[in-house]
């Protein structure tokens, strides 16, 4: 489900319905130069392709080339990962008065507060 231009209450209600039924939920909007996007994918599994790092050749001298790890694009491994997404109501219900929240506030974009 994709929503745009909806009120906060409508977005929270539809996200709860989607989350209960295992339906992926996206919401976003733009206000001039600012915008937001929220995704609740529930329990999301995916595969990430990682490039193997080649070990430096022991026959090389001690120069800068020997110290740099090189990427070997011909060898890759597939890593399966799982992410649990939070619901919109939980993302909007952050308590900003605690010490932990003060540190997170510095990393939080001001656009987060557009939804508030």
TrEMBL record:
GO molecular function, one term: ubiquitin-like modifier activating enzyme activity
SUPFAM superfamilies: Activating enzymes of the ubiquitin-like proteins
Matches recorded under Gene3D superfamilies: NAD(P)-binding Rossmann-like Domain (3.40.50.720)
Top-level taxonomic group: Eukaryota
Designated name of the protein: SAE1 enzyme
Organism this protein belongs to: Todus mexicanus (Puerto Rican tody)
